[in-house]
Design brief:
By secondary structure, the protein is mainly beta. The chain has five helices and 18 strands. The protein has one domain. It has a ten-stranded antiparallel β-barrel with strand order 1-7-8-9-10-12-13-16-17-18. Strands 3-5-6 form a three-stranded antiparallel β-sheet, covered by helices on one side. A three-stranded mixed β-sheet has the order 11-15-14.
Length: 358
């Protein structure tokens, strides 16, 4: 059987668009694991990539604003920034015996049960056995190693003054087809910021109150899709009483949606503007494997037969939900802008970038 990307490595590609080489298991790749126990695949994938969900949710909610001051009508800023969310120690590993796996997937060594997550150590995870309904081992695979303890999230955005004391921000990316048939990724987002002080005192506020105060609401969504091709073993037939299915519509898809509401305070000091913000953030994440998949049958002479399972993996969760605080600055040098900030929330993160505007 051909060994394509293991499911857990594909999960990395879902959210980071990495184009690294495949990590195959010692006894079979994605095909064997999903054929043996799709419910356990969902639990393993979720445990491994959860720091990616949280990291991307944190990163996508960062870098929207570096000042409370709004722009004049039709004045614009175009910026490129990158966020890095730091995976805490508690999310760098998980115990494979405590995530509800069935008897179809068990650790080969009961003393070796701690597996790294995406943000964990680069040492390989434990060897896992794949068992049939009678508990007999039919194959095995190795949990993948960690990749990096920082989850990146690049952003390109355009900010424009649309109404008095109000800015509109747009984040967008065209669909990008990744190398080596690793699927495609795209992003879109919108935000609005309003300087509330000007509503109460107008021009007087600028003279009496020595800072700007704004409210901002920002939302963006990142999507990833990748076609899959998991076929029956050579010579395998549909289980008795079943018919052959169409396996051409298999697809892996993932989405991360992030929303942040903030109050921002800043003070312009010539070309330097320090700021502080506090607010509420949330992020929801999904990862699905859809289509028809051939699953090893438990019928007599099971190696010669397969049954078909539809849409075997579905993950849907709220990854981030809570308060967030940011502090940083904006530096204006003529048309050029430089930005930097640090945030504290469920995950800590840093953001930096540059741009230009007028």
């Amino acid at each position: 059987m051909k060994k394509p990307y293991s499911l857990l490595t594909v999960a990395i590609l879902v959210l980071t668009a990495f184009t690294a080489s495949a990590q195959t298991s010692s006894g079979g790749g994605f095909d064997q694991l999903i054929k043996s126990s799709p419910g356990d695949v969902t639990k393993l994938v979720h445990s491994y990539i959860e720091p990616l969900f949280k990291g991307f949710g944190t990163g996508l909610n960062g870098g929207w604003n570096n000042t409370a001051k709004t722009k004049k009508l039709f004045h614009v800023d175009l910026r490129l920034t990158a966020s890095g969310a730091f995976v805490p120690d508690m999310d760098k590993s998980f115990d494979v015996t405590k995530i509800g796996l069935s008897s179809h997937v068990t650790p080969a060594d009961p003393a070796n049960v701690i597996a790294p997550t995406f943000g964990g150590t680069t040492a390989s995870g434990p060897l896992m056995n794949i068992n049939d309904d009678n508990g007999k081992k039919v194959n095995n695979f190795t949990m993948p190693q960690g990749v990096y303890p920082v989850v990146p999230a690049p952003n390109i955005q355009l900010e424009i003054g649309i109404l008095k004391n109000t800015d509109l921000t747009v984040r967008a990316s065209p669909t990008i087809n990744l190398k080596n048939s690793n699927g495609s990724i795209d992003m879109i987002g919108f935000g609005i910021k309003h300087d509330i002080l000007q509503d109460f005192a107008g021009g007087v506020a600028k003279k009496v109150i020595p800072f700007d105060l704004a409210l901002a609401v920002n939302y963006n969504r990142m999507s990833y899709t990748r076609p899959l091709s998991v076929q029956p073993d050579a010579g395998a037939l549909p289980a008795p009483g079943t018919q052959a299915a169409d396996f051409s519509t298999q697809q892996l898809s993932a989405h991360v949606s992030a929303l942040v509401v903030q109050a921002i305070i800043s003070k312009k000091l010539h070309s330097f503007t320090p700021f502080f913000s506090v607010g509420y953030q949330t992020a929801s994440s999904t990862a699905n494997i859809s289509g028809n998949f051939p699953i090893q049958s438990t019928a007599p002479n099971q190696s010669a037969y397969y049954v078909t399972v539809t849409n075997p993996v579905s993950i849907n969760e709220t990854s981030i939900d809570g308060l967030r605080a940011d502090a940083g600055f904006q530096l204006n040098l003529g048309f050029f802008r430089f930005y930097a900030s640090y945030s504290i929330g469920q995950y800590q993160s840093a953001n930096a970038g540059f741009g230009f505007g007028f």
